[in-house]
Design goal:
It is a single chain. By secondary structure, the protein is an alpha/beta fold. α2 links the parallel β1 and β2. It has helices spanning 2-5, 22-34, 54-67, 78-93, 109-117; strands at residues 11-16, 38-39, 45-46, 71-75. Strands 1, 2, 3 and 4 form a four-stranded parallel β-sheet that branches. It contains five helices and four strands.
Amino acid sequence: LGDIAKKFGKRALVVGNETFLQDLNAKIIDNLKKAGVEIVGGGVVPDAKPNAPREDVYRTESYILHYKPDFIVVAGGGSGIDCVKAANMLATVGALETPEIDHYFGTGMVTEAYKKHNVKALPLF
């Protein structure tokens, strides 16, 4: 992971399930650090509760906006991954379109926002 990820920058936000994936999270961080990647935020950011509640999406977006990583690594299940994808999108287009997540619900809405503002989300692993 470290050798691939470092091609996308030097600063990573790592989001993970701290209940069940502590060993995996430690391996991810170790691998990134060995590749010379800085872990922003001081460690693993907690992933989302089931069904990625809005408060978890907005919390994760806050980490992205505050720490300005070059890329994001997420270790977890579907809710954690969905949360990070939504937070990544909000951090990318929220200030350009609207920071209200409901605006982006519906087929093609996120793609349309990226195209309209000619931006891309941060790389996500």
